[in-house]
Each structure stands twice: as structure tokens, then as C-alpha cells.
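Note to self: keep these together.
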Amino acid sequence: MKTKEDKLKLLEETAQFYNTGNRSVIRISCRYFLPNKPGCAIGRLIADKKLCRKLDVFSDGSSVRAVFSYLPEDLKNYGVNFLEMLQELHDRESNWTETGLSALGLRHVEKMKADIEEGVI
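Structure:
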């Protein structure tokens, strides 16, 4: 399993990376892979873009739990609960502005940090 520090680092990096212009969303559905986009919070961490395309077909917008068994071991080591919350951060449009996190997104990140520190996720 990944350490608290690993989780905090990935959370912070994800929060710094996205904005309303680079999220991988079609209409309201997040995608593990979209041409000319970095991929969703989990998809951009998967080097095998063929796998990302398969996950998009298989999941059809389903939760992380639906695809967890197909993820690379390194990602599985973050744990399904952490990955679900990370993906939720990415997926909710209200978490983002043109320049990064919205106030709601900042609250989501702070909640995740607290959960990581307490060992909840």
C-alpha cells in the first residue's frame, strides 16, 4: 500500500494540474482517455492508453470500483477509496475554475487530506 505521503503528493499534484480547460470530460461523462487531453485523474496515471480505452468501454461512466481490478498494481496500491475520492475531485465540474480549484474543490481536497492523515483513505 502507498504511504500517506504518497497519497498527499498525488492529491496535491492532481489539484495543481487540472482546471476547467483540461479535464477529460465529454458532456458530463469523465473519460480515462480522450485524444488531446491528459485523461481523467486516474487515466492520466496509466501509461497504457489501450487499457484506458478499454476502461472507458467497460466502465461507461461507472465508478472506480467497476474497473479497479483492471488497474495497474501501482495504482491499486493507493486503495480503492482514495482513488474514488481522487476521481470524484476530477469529475465534479463544480470543483474547478478556469485557473484551477474552486472553493468547493478546495474543500474537497482539504477533506481528503484530513482523511489521509486519519488513515480513512
